[in-house]
Amino acid sequence: MNIPQFVLASASPARRRLLQTVGIEPIVKPSDFDESQIQLSDPGELVQVLAQRKAETIAPQFPSALIMGCDSVLAIDGKIHGKPADAAEAIARWQFMQGNIGDLYTGHVLIDTAQNRTLVKCQVTRVYFATMSDRAIQAYVATGEPLKCAGAFALEGFGSLFVEKIAGCHSNVIGLSLPLLRQMLAELGYEATDFWQ
């Protein structure tokens, strides 16, 4: 079996690092898909559609490759939170999130262009946020980290200080569920180890 190139349709350095951690060196090809085109209120449906659109946007450029698209949002009490627009929004978001519980949804899509097959899945991880002072919130937002992340926090960065615990897949919160990726690869007939360099 020919092992295709592994292409990541995402500009996320965190997703790339996760893949590198498990021995997969992806070709990084951000889709630049305009996410504002998709308006859905169900977080699981939203992330799956966005992940699929991202992967589909670049798939025609790779006739024999495995294209991975991902998208993440945080939902608290059914309300979807993506990346905050600015520091003021990030502060307001954290004032709401602190001491609260959220669900981090990540849509995962694999398009195998050689086999002409597409898999679409969603992984959900529950996140318990710490109680924080306004001073801590302002200091965290001042780092700039929350402005780059769905849900306004990075579990692999400063944000880990403010997460009490998670229930479910750890890597999913960073942007890509490695266990789910392994299962999806198996469904397409690959072992994750096939992509080790």
Helix content: 25-40%
Stretches where pLDDT is under 50 for at least 5 consecutive residues are none
Which sheet architecture does the biggest sheet show? 7 strands, mixed
- First CA to last CA: what distance? 16 Å
Radius of gyration: 17 Å
Q: What is the number of E strands?
A: 7
Per DSSP, the total helix count is 6
Helix vs. strand class: alpha/beta
What pattern of helices and strands is seen along the backbone?
EHEHEEHEEHEHH
What overall geometry do the principal axes of the alpha carbons give? elongated
What number is the mean pLDDT?
95
* Strand percentage: 25-35%
Kindly list the characteristics that best describe this protein:
single chain, 197 residues, alpha/beta, seven-stranded mixed β-sheet, 30% helix, 26% strand, elongated
Can you describe this structure?
- The protein has 197 residues and is an alpha/beta fold.
- The chain contains 6 helices and 7 strands.
- Strands 1, 2, 3, 4, 5, 6 and 7 form a 7-stranded mixed β-sheet that branches.
- Helix 3 packs across helix 4 (134-142).
- The longest helix is centred in the N-terminal third of the chain and has 16 residues, at 43-58.
- The chain is elongated and about 55 Å long.
Explain briefly what this protein structure is:
With 197 residues, the protein is of the alpha/beta class. It contains six helices and seven strands; from the N terminus they run E-H-E-H-E-E-H-E-E-H-E-H-H.
